[in-house]
Amino acid sequence: MSSGGFAFGAVLVGCAPLLFLAGCDRSEIHSYRVDREFDGSSAAAEGVAEAQPSQAESLGVTWSVPSGWQEVETTSSMRIATFRAANGQEIAVTAFPGDVGGLLANVNRWRGQVGLESIDEEGLGEDIVRLEGVDVIIVDVAGEDTRLVGSSINVGDGQTWFAKAMGPAEMVGEIKADLTAFSASFHIHDSHEGHDHGEETSVPESAPELASESGEDAASADPNPSGWLQPAEWTVEEGASSILMAAYLSQSGGRITLTSLTGEGGGMLGNINRWRGQLGLPAMASLDEMEMKDLGSGAVLVDIVAPDQSGRMAAGIVPAGGQTLFFKLTGSVDAVEAEFERFEAYINAEGLGKAGAP
Amino acid sequence: MIRKLLKPWASLRLTVVLFALSIILIFAGTLAQVHEGIWTVVDKYFRSVVVSIDLQIFAPQDVVKIPGSIWFPGGLTLGVLMFINLIAAHAVRFKLRKKRIGIILTHLGVILLLVGEFVTGIAAKEGNMTIREGETVNFVEDIRSTEIAVIDQSDPVDDLVVIVPEHFIETGETISHGLMPFTIKVTEWMPNSQMLGPMQAPESRKGIADTGIAKDLAAMPLERANGVDGSTVDAPSAYVTLFHGEQRIGSYLLSVYIDQAQMVVVDGRAYWIELRFARTYKPYSLHLMDFKHDLFTGTQMARNFSSDVRLVDEGRNVDREVHIYMNHPLRHAGETFYQASFLRDDSGTVLQVVQNPGWMIPYISCTVVTLGMLLHFGIRLVPTLGRRSK
Amino acid sequence: MKKLQQLLPWIVLVLGIVYAGQKIARPDKIDSKFDLNSFRQIPVSASGRTKPLDTVARNSLMNISGRQSIRTDDGKVSAIEWYIELITNPEESVQREVFRIDHPDVLALIGLDKEKRTRFSFSELLDSGNEINRQAMLASQVKAKARDPFQNAVLVLNQRMMLYSELSQLVNPYLVPPLTTGEDWRSFVTVLNESPNDPDARALLGMLQAYRAGDVEEFNSQLAAFKALVDSQITYDARKSRYEVIFNQAQPFIMASALLVVAFLFGCFGLLLAQLTKPEWSKSMFGSMTASIVVALVVMTIGIASRVYLQGRPPITNLYSSAVFIGWFSVIIGLIIDRQMKIGLGGIMASVIGFGTLIVAHNLGSSGDTMEMMQAVLDSNFWLATHVVVVTIGYSATFFGGFLAIAYVLLGVFTKVLDRERGKSMIKMIYGVICFATVTSFVGTVLGGIWADQSWGRFWGWDAKENGAALIVLWNLLILHARWGGMIRDRGLVNLSIFGNIITAWSWFGTNMLGVGLHSYGFTNSAVFWISIFVLSQLVLMSIGMLPVKIWRSKFAKPAVQPATK
Fold it and tell me: CB–CB of A8 and B87 under 8 A?
């Protein structure tokens, strides 16, 4: 049947190019458009500004400092000057070339810093006041627990200057008038008046300010209904599972959770073994062999490291009335190390200081 | 004339030899998986023309050392040869007789099976969709390949993304292209890596990156994942230095471990760069409403996994809720979504997305072969058995 | 004499039924005033499965000790008695010598290497508890395949001690039933702490305290109260619980093994007597063999059916049950072939394979509950019933063909039993079985591919076990094609069939031992040794089979019937 032969020949010929196709998988550098997945605008504005710090010294911009304000050492390399008012509120002075993205971008950046959403042009009017006679715009925005009063100043030296005060609403409110006057006093002076404008720097400020400036009380509208205090360095984890009474992320990437289970919650040994299992360790026969730190009142703290160093868990078990509180700090070996002391302190404060809550 | 040419190709001896070679190949390809990942083995042994078989795979290293390797025909070669052998046999020897119908059907089915595996090999695409609870995802990731993405957010609505496929990324390479706002010089490419915190990293690996959110972390290269130690996925990282023309912007640590893009400021404008698993954006999206993971009481063994997702595909007017669970995938737009895995602490689901145009071929071929076998053996054996029982 | 010869098979049949029946129908009651028979029927939840306490007690003791009861100078202590003593009277219980330790280095570690016994008590081990734990931690950091026997032994010991502690602390199993059906079982300890007035917990507590105090009446009444509570709370089928207790006791597969050994002996006698030209006695022996096999088959069938009933799943769910099934199916094939062959070889092969696989199964089942729950991905009754069953039938058939081939070689080389007719008959049998094996292993493998496609979108993933199945199909095909092409004749067929045993053993066990791939759900350690022995034995048999025909004692040229009558 020669038809079979033709068939076979055709198939072979047909298959050959496919063989080449099979080997080809080289795509080129290309581009496409997608819907926005994250909003980098505020960080961008700040980053762009920070990437190009200015040298204010040579331009001789000067100001008059309100009475009661003390100039203090500038902690951040980005600031030109830092002042402290009589009530303790800090005011930071910075300057950047150009218009730093424009007024709207700056307002939105500051809004972001107090936890407010961005606005568009129309809503701008509410937050700002333009001073007369000088090119100064005062911005006043307040979030739930933080208020920011800042000024955007243009003295004509090709840069935009900022004076910013951020903190509890009352404190900031007290110095607002002084800050307005201070901002209006900016001008270019020809002669050097010996202002010490702080160091020049080329390293941009790194981590976002959110974490270090979150206020002391972590009250409503967060997964922490009991109002317990969390250390300032921790940020509340969004969307944490509702089983967790509290869930935080530390800057170093460790994850802290707090759960409360009734009764023994499965017993200490059972839980410790479960955690050991999660880290790839064999279970232990009894609590006697477990290295635990006694925190008093029946509470203990254990530290479990995965044998291949891939993870670590510090856990505090605190009997509290009819419940047992389980504090867990998980993360890489480092992250846990970094947070250990704070974690232990947290347990002592929350677990033992507040036994019987909530 | 053609008959004469084909005759040697049609011989049963060849068939037996090909079977024997296939058995050896499959056996070797199974042993090889002990030390190499399954995907590597599949590409090396079964989808190749030839394979160099490392003789050490036949014995554990600490018992006896066997140096050297031998060349052996790969799966593609053996498959093609079997294909030829079958077709030739039918062309030369088989007459269409009723008695032969069983065998003809069987062989037809086998041909289809070979074709099916071939089509799968070149056309099937697999990827993952990792969705956290509450999240909506509209792309599929290929965890066996990565890309550098440079994102420009200057447009008020869309992001403009420039993709550098993985094969451009090699230590020492400079990547520049008209589409990119800066040049990427790859100072170190690590096809598989681990991330270490500032306290864990050795001195020599600290501070290589001076810009970006990862500059205090360090990446260390690892052996490629071989699927044996539990990890089947390579997690690459790269140290890159970015230039704008002559001006040095900074050096960054890019890694698939880093979940977010890092900012790059060029000329007063901000761009974002990240190293991520290769993405294919889809015209539909899946929103994970709930992920359930039940364990058997008192154990860590999974009883079931399931994902409740909302599938939205505007182009096809689809907006519905779907329950995906083990052995019950979602089929949409020529792709199938399987419940594959999940994120730690049940925080999200991982769906395997498979696009295989040839998926139906094995079903058809197996039906045909089974039918053929039953017919053939039925016709032949029944009378024989009858005779013997006397 | 003739009457005896004719009656013998029937006698054997009756004896067999009586033996099996009395074990099933008359469960051994525990001699105690405490109503332990009811106690052991109490349902609890362990490893995710609801089962009677009896199963937990037996499995735990089996795990720790290697036996389902303790032999003491005062007699036998049953598993349930051991268990209740463990939870009510730990001071006594820790003295019981139940921990089985064989490895000399482990014994040295705990300072007991001078003892002549193999079982030790918990209190003896507790002194070295820290050291055992430390060694176990070290061992656990090594990859499983790279561990040496000492590390494996110490890990096993540690795990057994953990199990013991968990049992005694009432952490495992979950004793307290859910308040309503659908909720979860609860650990006794948790319930007692959190709701001390929970009636279930109180009844349990009362029971255990009564036992400890020796108060028989109180124990029995609390037990009755507890049982009533349980029945009202959950819709658990109390019958299942009772049945499982009976099943545990009856140990059908051990019974079947015994019967198969008897069958094998009868079969050998039958062959022997046939050689000694005592055809009547020979027939009688073969008849008795068949009788034993039939009883064994019935017992195995009841055993498998019981497992299906208790688990609610198709017969094959793990390595243990696959072994049992292979045994069962081989016995069936054997009986069928026996009818065809008439020289009792089918039956002998059936008993050999059946017994062998049951021993394998017994070893596989020694670490715990053989009716364990299935992981989510395997959780599909349809595919378990189709793919797994068919592919296992394929394995059985390939084994059977291989063993028939072994019989052919042994009989042909060492005896005169195989004349031309018998030889041809056997060859046809082997050929037929191989054909059957080809079809079933192919269909079974294909079903597996379809399952994989439905489950994770990949019909064929070149997974170790998939490859193993493919090897069996390809090997069977190779045999058939080689025969059709005239490349092999009778001896070739036979030797290649024996090699098929090696390939099947690889596919069934070897692939699990690699520890790779989606199929590695059954890992055993000493199996490596036994599989190597098996492979070696097959190779030896093959080399015997390859001896030149001249050396074979059976002369195939001679027909059984004298030439004159042909």
Answer: yes
Q: Specify whether B328 is located in the same domain as B365.
A: no
Domain end among B232, B256, B278 = B278
Which chains reach chain C with 3 or more Cβ–Cβ distances below 8 angstroms? A, B
Asked if the C-beta of A305 comes within 8 angstroms of chain C's C-beta atoms, the answer is: no
Among C456, C483, C508, C535, the strongest candidate for a mutation testing the B interface, having the largest count of B CBs within 10 A, is: C456
Are the CB atoms for B240 and B186 separated by under 8 Å? yes
Mean pLDDT of all residues belonging to chain A:
66
- For residue B280, give the amino acid letter: T
| From B301, B327, B381, residue closest to C435, measured CB to CB | B381
Q: What is the pLDDT of residues C230-266, one digit of tens each?
A: 888 777 677 788 888 888 888 889 889 999 999 999 8
Most B-contacting residue of A3, A8, A15 (CB-CB within 10 A), to test interface: A8
C348, C373, C398 - which closes a domain? C373
Instruction: Compute the distance between CA of residue B98 and CA of residue C509 in angstroms, rounded to an integer.
Output: 42
In which band, very low, low, confident or very high, does the pLDDT at A323 lie, cut at 50, 70 and 90? low
- β pairing state of A246-249 and A147-153: unpaired
Tell which of A6, A15, A26, A31 to mutate to test the B interface (max B CBs under 10 Å). A31
Number of domains, chain B: 3
Which domains, and CATH codes, for chain A?
41-188 (2.60.120), 216-352 (2.60.120.1690)
Distance from CA of C140 to the nearest CA of B (A): 14
Q: How far apart are CA A241 and CA C42, in angstroms?
A: 37
Task: Check if the beta carbon of residue B170 is closer than 8 Å to that of residue B188.
Answer: no
- Distance in Å, alpha carbon of A263 to nearest chain C alpha carbon: 4
Banded pLDDT at B93 (limits 50, 70, 90): confident
Mark which residues 155-184 of B lie under 8 Å from C by CB.
none
CB contact under 8 A, A308 and C141: yes
Nearest C-alpha of chain A: how many angstroms from B213? Answer: 7
What was the pLDDT predicted at B123? 86
**Is residue A227 scored above 50 in pLDDT?**
no
Q: Does the distance separating the beta carbons of A7 and B87 come in below 8 Å?
A: yes
Which of A65-69, A264-268, C119-123, C189-193 has the weakest average pLDDT?
A264-268
A32 contacts on B by Cβ (under 8 Å): 160-161, 163, 281
Which of C237, C260, C284 is the last residue before a domain boundary? C237
Distance from CA of A317 to the nearest CA of C (A): 15
* Domain stop point among B255, B278, B301: B278
Mean predicted confidence (pLDDT) in B60-64: 70
Per-residue CA distances from A202 to A205, A212, B34, B198, B307 (Å): 9, 22, 51, 22, 49
Q: What is the pLDDT of residue B278?
A: 92
Residues C440 and C302 in one domain: no
CA dist B115 and B272 (Å) reads: 44
Do B68 and B32 share a domain, yes or no? Answer: yes
**CB contact, 8 Å: B157 with chain A?**
yes
The average confidence (pLDDT) of chain C is 83
| pLDDT tens string C207-217 | 888 888 888 88
C267, part of any domain: yes
CB-CB contact of B271 with B261 (8 Å): no
* Cα–Cα distance measured from residue A318 to residue A297, given in angstroms and rounded to the nearest whole number: 8
B111 and B129 share a domain? no
Q: Provide φ and ψ at A259, rounded to 5°.
A: -125, 155
Give chain C positions within 8 Å (CB) of A282.
Answer: 136-137, 140, 155, 158-159, 162
Q: Which residues of C touch A265 (CB under 8 A)?
A: 190
Model pTM above 0.95: no
Q: Looking at the predicted complex, does its ipTM rise above 0.90?
A: no
Please list, residue by residue across C447-485, b when 16 or more beta carbons sit within 10 angstroms of its beta carbon and e when fewer do.
bbbbbbbbbbbbbbbbbbbbbbbbbbbbbbbbbbbbbee
